[in-house]
TrEMBL record, chain A:
InterPro entries tied to this protein: Cyt_c-like_dom, Cyt_c-like_dom_sf, Thiosulf_SoxX, Thiosulf_SoxX_II
Taxonomic path: Bacteria, Thermotogati, Deinococcota, Deinococci, Thermales
SUPFAM superfamilies reported for this sequence: Cytochrome c
Superkingdom of source: Bacteria
Pfam short name (any one): Cytochrome_CBB3
Name of the protein in its database record: Sulfur oxidation c-type cytochrome SoxX
GO MF annotation terms: electron transfer activity; heme binding; metal ion binding
Secretion signal, residue range per the UniProt entry: 1-18
Segments crossing the lipid bilayer: none
Record's keyword terms, sorted: Heme, Iron, Metal-binding, Signal
Coiled-coil ranges from the UniProt annotation: none
Domain Cytochrome c stretches: 84-178
Automatic annotation (TrEMBL), chain B:
Co-factor requirement: heme
Lineage of source species: Bacteria, Thermotogati, Deinococcota, Deinococci, Thermales
Gene Ontology MF annotations: electron transfer activity; heme binding; metal ion binding; oxidoreductase activity, acting on a sulfur group of donors, cytochrome as acceptor; transferase activity
Protein name, UniProt field: SoxAX cytochrome complex subunit A
Catalysis: reaction(s): S-sulfanyl-L-cysteinyl-[SoxY protein] + thiosulfate + 2 Fe(III)-[cytochrome c] = S-(2-sulfodisulfanyl)-L-cysteinyl-[SoxY protein] + 2 Fe(II)-[cytochrome c] + 2 H(+); L-cysteinyl-[SoxY protein] + thiosulfate + 2 Fe(III)-[cytochrome c] = S-sulfosulfanyl-L-cysteinyl-[SoxY protein] + 2 Fe(II)-[cytochrome c] + 2 H(+)
Amino acid sequence: MRNLIWMVLACMAPWAMAQSYFGPGETKAVQGSGAKFADALLNMSADQLQCSLHQNRLPADATPSFLAAQKASIQYPKGDKFMGDWQKGGAIFNNLQKANCFSCHFGSPANLGGDVGPSLEKYGLQRGQSEAVQRYTYEVIYNAWSYFPCTVMYRFGVQGLLTPEEIADVVAYLLNPASDFNTKPALGGKR
Amino acid sequence: MRKVVLIPMILAFVGAFFALTQQDQPLDPFEEAMKQREQYLKTFGILPGDLFASQGEELFHTKRGPAGKSLEECDFGLGPGQLEGAYPYLPRYFADDGKVEDLETRIVSCMQRIQGFKPQEINRDDVVALTTFVASKSSKAKMQVVPKHPAELAMYNLGKQLWYTRAGPRDMSCAVCHDDHAGKRVRLSPVMSPQQGLGSEWPAYRFEEDRMYTFENRIQFCYASVGIPAPAFYSEPQIALTTYILAEATKAGHSFQELPFFTR
């Protein structure tokens, strides 16, 4: 019985915290902007709420548990095959409607990149293809918050924006030495 | 009325015109917009934004609505009909309806109170044209949004809360781009913080979209482009974010651009 009470309380925690981020008057104001807008803003997940409350700068004492929870959310592709089809990965990387990686990262031979994120120019040639590099690259794309708490990069796997297999395709696009990403010059020349 | 007919005529040329002037080498977006602007002036002798402003001017002075009145009685904060320099003080608190309103919301509330329109009778295109006209009377003016009234302070605080809210399937907030990566580029577009003068260019004609964008249009576009359903026009979150952004830009001493602005 006691366990049940704790479970119910634990389930209510994100709701209770979301209520405290927006006060009652603010909640009402947000609801006045339409049901769909209110639904997105008033139902932050527990981790989104932490980033909102701390304005994207998690305090040191909150960081280890945050990172551990993010790491635990990662699901891996079948047989831990981190590198898939680089050509499919390129189509995902360079599609504005899909992963849209180039909007923030420089290095694509197909699209001029932005500089919100670090340059990925010749990523596979710089880092090699060790199992550790493959796993790291996969994990950052699946859940960037497992390494960089509250960063702007989308959590592609966690949020269901890409499947584990699609993420493995993008890993291959970045790492495979035969990939256009590593054989062709980045569009826009060296920055 | 002649000007109103001119708008669709001129806009009909825009598509072909835009295609003809595209470059192989991507230009800096600001330089590109300035180039397009010069082309417009050379070809048509007028900018699209100015056509919207003159449409708004006509609407402003025309007796309309169930009450058959013009908007000349509408007080934008400096007294009825005082338009010069009114926009930079908005959003602000208005005692006559007890609300904090941005320019667009103020126009809508005047259309209801003075002209007798019902909310569902108010045409968005009219509001955009009227907003463009009133804002054009404050071209290049210094921003003056300094929340003082308790309702203005509450609006500023709500805007600040919204600014930092991480939400939606892409975990986005305004701050995670516009503060944390200010000065960087998303593709070719520069990311600006309020402290760098974010918000100084609206209302603007966006030639890529071939549309007039007000501040509220821009906020809707922002949310929609990060996968969060856009907040409704004239709602408090719109006014709150506008208050927060313009108050921060005011603190940093920014002025508006030439209004209506011309941008990509």
